[in-house]
Specification:
The chain is built from six helices and seven strands. With 206 residues, the chain is an alpha/beta fold. The chain has a single domain, classed as Maf protein. Strands 1, 2, 3, 4, 5, 6 and 7 form a seven-stranded mixed β-sheet that branches. Helix 1 links the parallel strand 1 and strand 2. Helix 3 crosses helix 4.
């Protein structure tokens, strides 16, 4: 596609994704989707019955990017690639989304304690004539967490806006014994795969 400049649109409210793009020098403009309000969310993040984590993150990322591309056209904004992403945590085949309250956050952390879980992050890049998506999967092993450490962590704001009730970029890094995969993917945006898709969309990257 013919880019209007060397920017992209980021269809995400996540401060971690913004920080990661800034870290590698990718210029972006926010194109935020509605997550609530009288008309509801632009893209639902509810898990469909029987939906596996891999299918769930891919579907949500693609739906976010597709909707953002429609918004771009409706607003007659300059043509640029649209980047959207979705992250979830899975253990024993169950999807652990963002906890609704403290009790749910504590329950999630007890499930993750002393075990290995999977972090799925799917990215989608849509542009005129292009709709590409990739999913990165990381394995994360937690140390055994004491009730006191879980309670102390849940006393902070960190668990409540993150899948699986933790963020590896915060104090929960102290829980992590081992990771296999992408550190940036666990944070919410696998940078290697992101760069691959943005190059496909015409963005000049090293």
């Amino acid at each position: 596609m013919q880019l209007s400049d060397k920017k992209i649109y980021l269809a995400s409210k996540s401060p971690r994704r913004r920080e990661l793009l800034q870290q590698v020098g990718i210029d972006f403009e926010l194109l935020l989707l509605r997550s609530d309000g009288p008309r509801g969310a632009d893209v639902t993040e509810e898990v469909l019955p029987g939906e596996a984590a891999l299918d769930y993150v891919a579907r949500v990322a693609n739906e976010k990017a597709a909707f953002a591309l429609k918004v771009l056209a409706m607003r007659r904004l300059p043509p640029r690639p649209v980047l959207a992403a979705d992250t979830t945590v899975s253990i024993d085949g169950d999807i652990l989304g963002k906890p609704a309250d403290r009790a749910e956050a504590e329950d999630m952390l007890r499930r993750l304690s002393g075990r290995t879980h999977q972090v799925f992050t799917s990215i989608a890049v849509h542009a005129e004539g292009m709709a590409e998506q990739r999913t990165q999967i990381s394995q994360v092993r937690f140390a055994v967490l004491t009730p006191a450490s879980i309670a102390a962590y849940c006393d902070t704001p960190e668990p409540y806006d993150k899948a699986g009730a933790y963020g590896i970029q915060g104090s929960a890094a102290l829980f992590v014994e081992h990771i296999e995969g992408s550190h940036s993917g666990i944070m919410g945006l696998p940078l290697y795969e992101t760069a691959q898709l943005l190059r496909q969309a015409g963005l000049p990257l090293p």
